[in-house]
């Protein structure tokens, strides 16, 4: 049986890596063993992933500049500027998850004997 070697489309591999596909996903798309893909195209995929991440950051930055995504601005400030939400002062009742404890001892206890 003659096997036909798959033709690896470098453009497809690069574009798949740029949109953050995993090596395994790209190997499955191309129909080749993962190890072969990594040996042949590892550096290309790494560079394309880095370019893809840069494009995502740039798009987020442009959203912030446009004023259309204030939540993105908050997220970016926490990720890259070290900003945090103000610490909330914790009260003992906060630890009870909204459950109110009732001291039934002050109500007196009825027993079956007193009925």
Blueprint of the fold:
Blueprint: H1 10-18, H2 23-30, H3 34-66, H4 70-80
What does this structure look like?
The chain has 115 residues and is mainly α. The protein has one domain (1-83). 53% of the residues lie in helices and 0% in strands. It is built from 4 helices and no strands. The termini are far apart.
List low-pLDDT spans.
none
Q: Whole-Å distance between the termini?
A: 92 Å
Query: What is the count of helical runs?
Result: 4
Characterize the largest beta sheet: strand count, sense, and whether it forms a barrel.
Answer: none
Percent of residues in helices comes to: 40-55%
Whole-number tally of structural domains? 1
Task: State which percent range the strand residues make up.
Answer: under 5%
Structural class: mainly alpha
Number of strands: 0
Regarding quaternary structure, how should these chains be classified? single chain
User: What is the N-to-C succession of helices and strands?
Assistant: HHHH
**Mass-distribution shape:** elongated
Radius of gyration equals 29 Å
What is the mean pLDDT? Answer: 84
Summarize the structure.
The protein has four helices and no strands.
Which features would summarize this protein structure in a list?
single chain, mainly alpha, 115 residues
